[in-house]
Amino acid sequence: MNIDQLKATITTIPDYPKPGINFRDVTSLLQVPEALRETIRLMCEPYRDSGIDKIVAIEARGFVFGAAMALELGCGLVLARKPGKLPRATRAAAYTLEYGENTLHIHTDAIHAGERVLLVDDLIATGGTAEATVELIKGVEAILVGAAFAVALVDLPGLAKLSALSVKAHHVIEFEGD
Ligand SMILES: O=P(O)(O)OC[C@H]1O[C@H](OP(=O)(O)OP(=O)(O)O)[C@H](O)[C@@H]1O
Ligand SMILES: Nc1ncnc2[nH]cnc12
């Protein structure tokens, strides 16, 4: 499948979950086996020889892509979760996004100084979620190798936000006009 075919598997829902938001729904991509396989392959491509120790994947849709990539890259998987979900001691960072605000947590023993880490999520929009996760990763002095997304909403400031933080971002599919 080429990129246009992958993009065509993503459904757009206008005014969800709030008026004015064009919601790009990756669940329809996940339903197509070939699209899922090719998206994971392309998300992994820049990192095959990067010696990644751990992927930090963001709840909830980021878990799907992060788990598949961890298997393909042969690295560990760390879950960045919303409040009240992780059972042991955590570090936390707050953020805002297109349609709300929240906090992300990781277990304090999940990543260590000097480990080579890749941030993974399904989609980047304003970049608030990714920025909070960067703070969690850099806060333990791990080496943030990059950030990989299935989808980027390129008219929103997420990619520029990561670039300003000196984080190298990679995405497979992009949408304009959000
Ligand atoms: O770049 P941003 O503006 O921060 O937005 C991107 C985030 O928004 C969505 O998650 P959401 O918070 O809707 O959670 P979900 O995956 O649990 O549905 C998406 O999965 C990203 O994590
Ligand atoms: N427009 C959008 N579509 C899907 N997920 C999102 N997360 C933040 N903005 C989004």
From TrEMBL:
It is an enzyme of class 2 (transferase). This is Adenine phosphoribosyltransferase. Residues 26-151 form the Phosphoribosyltransferase domain. InterPro entries: Ade_phspho_trans (IPR005764), PRTase-like (IPR029057), PRTase_dom (IPR000836), UPRTase/APRTase (IPR050054). Homodimer. It comes from Gilvimarinus japonicus. One of its GO terms (molecular function) is adenine phosphoribosyltransferase activity. Pathway: Purine metabolism; AMP biosynthesis via salvage pathway; AMP from adenine: step 1/1. Its EC number is 2.4.2.7.
